[in-house]
């Protein structure tokens, strides 16, 4: 009788565990997040320059980066769509439609890393997703909060760039 009770108890405990959780398709969630429309408040360090910016990204890939610092560059607006770049500062606008952006420029790095294109190698640990994209000309590491897919940071090993996301708002919340 004791063996039967122990067997039934073990069966109940094991059955209560349920099926293992389905594996998450993190790569698809990352692609969905990055390819959407959103606004981010950013802090960045690029080599020895520290600054902050507001980034607006549209679903069609148009991206507007408005620098809030460093001193002397407040209000500089960079708008990219594809390879086109428009610079605006204190009412002066310069369109550069046929000028390819340098691979090392902050707008290029943000545009490529936030496009949602390419493939990602994703790891999850303690509620943080780390996505490494190696299929682009430079490799990028982007971290996300797993519960709501909020981007937290972006960096690249090949260049002295680190971006931290202070706030992230999806289009539907704007």
Structure, briefly:
The protein is built from three helices and eleven strands. It is α+β, with helices and mostly antiparallel strands and 174 residues long.
Mind explaining what this structure looks like?
- By secondary structure, the protein is an alpha+beta fold.
- Helix content is 19%, strand content 44%.
- An eleven-stranded antiparallel sheet has the order 6-5-4-3-2-1-11-10-9-8-7, covered by helices on one side.
- The longest helix is centred in the first third of the chain and has 15 residues.
- The protein is globular.
- The N terminus is likely disordered.
How would you sum up the global shape?
globular
Total strand segments:
11
Oligomer: single chain
Poorly predicted spans: 3-16
Question: Which range does the strand content fall in?
Answer: 35-45%
Strand line-up of the largest beta sheet: 6-5-4-3-2-1-11-10-9-8-7
Number of helices: 3
CA radius of gyration: 22 Å
- The residue-averaged pLDDT reads 81
Helix percent band: 10-25%
Structural classification:
alpha+beta
Strand count, sense and barrel status of the largest sheet are: 11 strands, antiparallel
Distance linking N and C termini = 65 Å
- String of helices and strands: HHEEEEEEHEEEEE
List keywords for this structure.
alpha+beta; 174 residues; disordered N terminus; eleven-stranded antiparallel beta sheet; 3 helices; 11 strands
Could you give the topology of this structure?
Layout: H1 2-16, H2 26-35, E1 38-46, E2 49-57, E3 63-69, E4 77-81, E5 84-89, E6 92-96, H3 106-113, E7 120-125, E8 128-133, E9 140-145, E10 150-156, E11 161-170
Antiparallel strand pairs: 1-2, 1-11, 2-3, 3-4, 4-5, 5-6, 7-8, 8-9, 9-10, 10-11
